[in-house]
Amino acid sequence: MYHSISYTTFHLPERDSFSAHHTFSCGQCFRWEPQEDGSWSGIVRGIPARVRDDGGRLLLHTLEGTEPMWRSYFDTQTDYTAVCAQFPDDPFVCSAVKFGTGLRILHQDAWEALCVFLFSQCNNIPRIRAITDRFCTLFGEPIQWEDRTYYAFPTPERIAARNPDELAPLRAGYRAPYVHHAAQAVCAGEINLDALEQLDSDAARREIMKLRGVGRKVADCFLLFGLHKLDAFPVDTWIKKIAAFHPAEFDRWLACPYGGILQQYLFYYARETGLN
Predict the structure, then answer these.
(1) 197: alpha, beta or left? (left if phi > 0; alpha if psi -120 to 50)
(2) What is the pLDDT of residues 170-213, one digit of tens each?
(3) Which of 56, 75, 201, 208 has the CB geometry, 3.0–4.6 Å to 229, for a possible disulfide?
């Protein structure tokens, strides 16, 4: 069993705040679960943790010696107050940013982000969560921590070695073969996920779209959430609805600095309020 440390505070840039609810509920990740005590539990890169926010502070309970990974994961070096000040000054953007106060773009594991957003195609968040949970439970390494079993995200090697028929219990439909093919491509060296992070967004997008099932929306989600390319602007159904409501402003939103962060505020606000 892992040994843990007490809650520790991550100091975000001055004036920034953190909201676990907004960050974990905004559709960018699918493995954090709310707990009765107000914390959220999850596992990242095989390291389990509990997270809560207290007056805008990020409080983390996890394994000793893992703080650098978590600082990167929670993007603690980015000043979100300064970023949001660069967004277009119009009423809808201001409402979205205010609604999502404390939301931060997570720097997720690239392989996990690729798989999860392949699962996300033509899907809703509850089903994405369910498929991802089955994927990890069936093929991930079990990890005991705080009297609970967590499951690490399955490695590409473990998935590539499976017969595609073994993915049937995921009930992921046509998406499962895409994930199996991606695993084989990574293991064969056809796609180097670490190398993609060093490329600019356009080049990384072209490379990842060589994989089966990776269209522009999945590619941009992968860039934003897996490679932390903060200029990537995924366009899904909700963003298309926003564009239809705000055609005059939309091109400016697409072109603004840190468009990926803006996109997530817009997406979350629209989805939660129904554009009312």
Answers:
(1) alpha
(2) 999 999 999 999 999 999 999 999 999 999 999 999 999 999 99
(3) 201
